[in-house]
Every structure is written in C-alpha cells, then in structure tokens.
Amino acid sequence: MRRLPVYFLLDTSGSMYGEPIQALNNALSGMVNTLRSDAQALDSLWISIITFDREVKEIVPLTELVSFQLPEITCPQSGPTNTGAGLDFVIQKVKKDVLKGSPTQKGDWKPLLFVFTDGKPSDIQLYREKTPEIKNLNFGAVVGCAAGHMANDEILKELTDNVVHLDSADSSTLKQFFKWVSETIEQGNKSQGTGEGVTLPPPPSEITVVI
Amino acid sequence: MKTITVKSINDSSKSYQYVDNGEPMRGGVKDVFFSPDKKYVVAIFRDKLDFNQKERLQRITNHYLPQIQNKEAGDYYLNEVFRWPTDVIEHNGFIGVIVPIYNSKFFFKKGYETSDLIQGKEKNGKWFAGAKFRNPQFPLKVAKSELGDWLSYFQVCVNLTRGVKKMHAMGLAHSDLSYNNVLIDPVEKSACIIDLDGLVVPGMFAAEVIGTAEFIAPEVLSSKHLNKTDSNRKLPNRLTDLHALPVLIYMFLLHRHPLKGGKVHDLDTEKDDLLSMGEKAMFIEHPTDKTNRPKLAQGSKWDLPWADIVKLPYSVTGPYLKTLFDKVFIDGLHNPMQRPTAEEWEIALLKTTDLMQKCHNISCEQKWYVFDNTNTPKCPFCGTAHKGTLPVLDLYYQFKPTVWKPENHRLMVYKDQYLFQWHVNRNITRNEKITAEQKVPMGYFTFHNNKWVLVNQKLTSLKDVTEDREIPIGSMVELTDGKKLLLSKEDGGRVVVITMANK
Question: Residues in domain Protein kinase (chain B) (predicted)?
C-alpha cells in the first residue's frame, strides 16, 4: 500500500571514469540483488536512479523493485560535477512522484535520498541554494557518500548530517557501502527498541562516518 | 577464515567453536557464526550487555531450557517449535548464545519460481504471510513447490500457537512475535519460533524491544511516547503476544493485515501509521463500522485476490476462528484482557480442520476450504461447487443420563477422512501431548457403492442408535440423513448426528 521511495543521486563526472564507474555499477547491482531477496523490501520499495555530470539524467524513474532493471551506468571522460543541478532534479521528482497523504488516500513513506560523489560541486552556488530545499522536503533520511580523497566531506555536510566517507571508490569498498545502504533501507521492519527514534545502523568498520 | 574457540559462562568446562569468515550473518542485534560442523550457531551481541541482560540469557538457558526438556512433549517443543538457546558464551568481553542449527526444511529448496536468488535462504514467515509472493503474475513469486496448500497453514499456525501457549504456561512472554521471528515450512507443515533471547519474565526482566511494526499491540504504540517509568506506559507482555499471535494467524490464512485499511487519520504518514496501528486501530472487516475498509484501487495489484475482503472475507476461515477474530480484533483490540488465549486459538484451529473439504478442482491453488454451512457448498478460492452429497457430523456429549448436548464441534466427511480418538471421546484432547498410539485412526469414511459409510477399524462399542444395531470392528455403517451413532460406550464417548448437505 504505502511505498518507500528511494532516490540514488550518483556522480558520473569525468573523475569517475574507468575503475570507479565499473565498481559503482558492480556495487549497485549487488545491492539490487540483496534487496530483491528481501521480502520486506519487495513489499514496499520503489527505486529511482539519477546521475549528474555536465548533465542530469534520470537513468531509471521511480520503479517498483520487482520490475526494476538496472542499466549500465556510464560517464564521460571529463567534465564538471553539477551536484546542484542534480539536487534540483531530485527536488522536482520528489514533488511529483511521492504520494502525499490526503483525507481519502494514504501517503507514501518519507523518501530516502542517497547522494554519491567523488568530488565537489562545480555549481556550488546552485548547490547551496538547493540544500535548504532538500531539507524542507521532509526526507526520511538523506545520506551523503564521499568517495576518494578528492571528495569534499564538508560540503556534503551542508546537505546532511549523515556523511559517509569512503577512502576509495574501489569495488570492495563500494560493495560494503551499498550493503550498508540496503541494511539502512531494510531497517524499517526490524524489531523496534523501547527507546524512541529511528537510527541508522552502524556503517561497516572499513569506512568512516563523518558526523 | 579462522576458527575461534569460546567458553561457556555457565560451565567453564564447556567450549564451543565457530568459523569467522569476516562476513557473519547480521541479525538485528547479533552477528551469527556457524560452528565448524554446522550443528549450532554462535550468535554474538554486537553491543556489550549489562548485568541484567546476561542474567536473562543465563536464566533462559539454565532454568527455562531444562524446564521444557523435563516436561511433557519436551522433544516436540525443542525440536519442532522452538530454537531455544542452549548456552551462553563470552568472547573478548562480548556475550553470545549457542543456538542449535535450524532444521534443513526451513531453507528454501527452490525459492523463487524463476530465479535462484533466495534458494538456500531461510524461510522467514514474511515470504508466506504476504499475498504478492503467491500471486502467479508476480515476477518474483515463490515457487509453487514451496507454498503448500491452505490446510498446511492451519498446521503451521497450530505449531506457532502451541509455542506461545507453552511460553505463557511457563510465565514467559515472547514480546516480539512477528513473521521475522518465525520460520515456517508449509510443505512439511512446520513452524519454529526463533530469536528467543529477548523473552520477558514479568517482574524480573522487562521488554527491551516494543516489537516489530505490524505486530505491536495498539496499547504499546499509543503509549510509546511516554517514559518507561511512567505507569501508563505499556510494554510488551503476555497480552501483547495475544495480539501479535492472531495477527500472524490472520496473515498466514488470509495474506493481508487485519488493521491495514483505507482510513486516513493524519496527513503525515508517520503519524497516520502510528494512529492506525495504535490509538485509532480498527479491524478492516469490522462488521458495522466500515470506515477502515481497504481501498482496492489504491493497493498493489499483486496483493489480489487476498486483499479483496468482499471476495475472501475472514468468515472463510470458518465459524470458530471468526468468533475469535471478532474477540481479538473488535472486543480485545483496545481491551487487552478480552483477547483469547493461545489455547483458545489452538482449539479453534484444530476444530476448523474438521470442517475442511477437499476442493474438486484439481488445479485449485488452495486445495482445501472450510465448509460454509450452506446447502450448496462451493470453494471460496476457485468457485468450484461441491459435487454430490456431503455428510456433516455434529458431535454431542452426555450431559446426564439420556441427555446429550451439542459440543459446537462438527466433523465434515470426505472420501478417506479418518475418525480419531479425539472425535470419539471428549476426554481425549487433541494437543501436543497426544501419544503415537492415540494418533492411530479408529475408523474411516468413504463413498462406497453410491453410499457414504463409516468403516469401523478399532471402535469397540460403535452403535447405530437409530437402527439400534451394534457395528462390530471390521464392518461398516451407512451414513444417512438424521441418523445417530454412538461412537463409544465408555465414559466421555460421543454421539454424532448426521446431516446430509448438498442433497
């Protein structure tokens, strides 16, 4: 009934060219398989994948997990990192896709947003305009992932308190990270503690969380 | 990959081993490792436990485990119904429990019909509770060979119900019963309650979790904003188990949630969800208040036909279960003391299996249905009408000499249906304590030369009261409309009255 919409906003700028983009594709398909073998995820999860480099592309519009087909994600050999434009696109999509509650219709769960980048925004002004809009959209969680030494944790922290830093964008690190992402997504149906508030599960030990 | 040896904190002479491959299975709060021989697992808590938590685990393994072992049906409970922790270990300051490995029947042999993605994975109850995974059009449907038929889920529910009955009889509460904490196998009709390390002992160990969404009792949700020390705060206990158990039963039999309907209580999703499962919870099939009826158009197409409460109302589970569902989801929903006990559920489930008929449609997915008490019965799942006459046996007990009263227990006859001691004599209760000898049929029903007959195999004093004739072992008696049979002259022996339906 209620859907859990999950948006992945992925950096496909020039610096991702080569091994990193391969690793990202590999990790994403691992994550989709993990989710597709989870009964709870199959019950409610809808996924969208959006990439940003010079352009913003909606690789997969918001799609029910069972019908979700992961295409190969590619990136140009060089070019800017238009993170701000990417955020702007997500904002438009969330406003359009996510069902709000009405007196006669149950609303969707609060959407989740995962932003993955290996650099810093080239359109920093637009980025800073869009971060408060993201915050006002009432996401269930926004997780920023900064991969590699070029990624700027501080700028991502302007977007969200949940920033995970990956030392590199190699295959095994990304796999670990996306495993954690699927655990975060699956979190909803675990036993709830007697305390309050939903917390993110601890990230795997190999990566650093910046709080 | 390394093998690690850990010591019991209950008995320092005992040690266990596990293989650390760096990628344990991650549960909610524990990392789970296999022993080298794969006979048990070592489940280690990721957080350090406090004194009370340690004490609780030791109590579970040292006090409650032997209590089950040494009582009646101990093997049934420990091998079938529970995966009870057997010991507590410590390793580098972290505490873990030793749990016997799950029986192989609780792992998917095939999994999805069209992919091997979940082959070999645990048969968590969620796969069998939801409607999607059994919808033939769903791309990731669970293989038909894994699903069993409708009757399978009655036996599954009976096993779960007995588990809860046993815990309550020992003064324990499960506190987090959900489809995630049970493994079920509809093929062998088994169910097993797992994750038993969080048990609540009233007055001694309080609940640490409030439960799993969808199974948390309304009073727990509506008071969860209060501090734990507040006297109005309700935490899981025996009575909240008696909410979670029927939610599970309802879901396994009807593949939808009893409280998830169309009524909107708040425009904010989180608040709406909290209200609709908590303070404002309302049965979707409430007979008079229809405000929470599911809105099919807003639901997922994969959830049909089960989501359709008009096509498959809860009354398809028969009169005994309907009565209990009314009690728990209407009277007892906000009034915990009114909730039926686990034993009442066990009895109702078992009595309902006596009302089952085989569907004549060989391709019917459910294969069995509950007699709907009409003169023209048909299968509610595929619509196939019953062909031929249908004997209905109503059971009576002797209230005082010459006065017989109805038991509100009925046995439907079908070809090759058996008659058991628990039908013959009211002093024999059909439960986990039944001996192998008591499971031997006393007779069987069959359709022979165009007549329904009961063949007497072991009944020493069967008598056709209507025709005043003894029916010795090895002979048979015809079932005709209005006929009365005395099944046994012994104390507790019953009389059955035959009605012919679908004439």
Answer: 18-350
One domain, residues B224 and B284: yes
Are B268 and B319 contained in the same domain? yes
Return the structure tokens found at B276.
């609709």
Enumerate residues 60 to 119 of chain A having a beta carbon within 8 A of any beta carbon in chain B: 66-67, 100-110
Residue B475 has phi, psi (to 5 degrees) of -120, 180
What would the two tokens of residue A101 be?
Answer: 């509650």
Cβ–Cβ < 8 Å for A201, A190: no
- Asked if residue B359 belongs to a domain, the reply is no
Expressed as residue numbers, the domain containing B55 is 2-101
Q: Are residues B411 and B481 in the same domain?
A: yes
pTM of the predicted model as reported, rounded to 2 decimal places? 0.92
Residues of A in contact with B220 (CB under 8 A): none
Do B139 and B55 fall within a single domain?
A: no
Q: Do residues B122 and B107 make contact, with C-beta atoms less than 8 angstroms apart?
A: yes
Partners of B192 in the β-ladder:
B183
Nearest CA to B5 out of B27, B20, B22 is that of B20
Task: Supply the DSSP symbol for B205.
Answer: B
Q: What angle do CA A148, A149, A152 make, to 5 degrees?
A: 95
How many whole angstroms separate alpha carbon B125 and alpha carbon A107?
27
Q: How far apart are CA B163 and CA B81, in angstroms?
A: 6
| Three-state secondary structure call for residue B323 | helix
Q: What is the CATH number of the domain that holds B472?
A: 2.60.200.20
Identify from B269, B272, B282 which residue to disrupt to test chain A contact, counting A C-beta atoms within 10 A and taking the largest count: B269
Q: Whole-angstrom Cα distance, residue B362 to residue B61?
A: 48
Quote ipTM for the complex.
Answer: 0.86
Please check whether residue A2 is in contact with residue A110, taking contact to mean a CB–CB distance below 8 angstroms: no
Contact B367, B360 (CB under 8 A): no
Q: Which residue has the tokens 């002093």?
A: B427
- What residues contact residue A47 under an 8 Å CB cut-off, 6+ apart? A5, A6, A7, A8, A32, A35, A60, A62, A63, A65, A68
Give the bridge partners for B498, in sequence order.
B393
A102/B121 Cβ within 8 A: no
The verdict on B417 and B321 lying in the same domain is no
CB A112 within 8 A of CB A4: yes
Domains of chain A (ranges plus CATH)? 4-187+201-210 (3.40.50.410)
Tell me which residues of chain A, numbers 4 to 43, contact chain B at a CB-CB cutoff of 8 Å.
33, 36-37, 39-40, 42-43
B258/B142 same-domain check: yes
Alpha-helix runs per DSSP H in B44-195:
51-59, 65-69, 74-75, 126-129, 144-147, 150-169
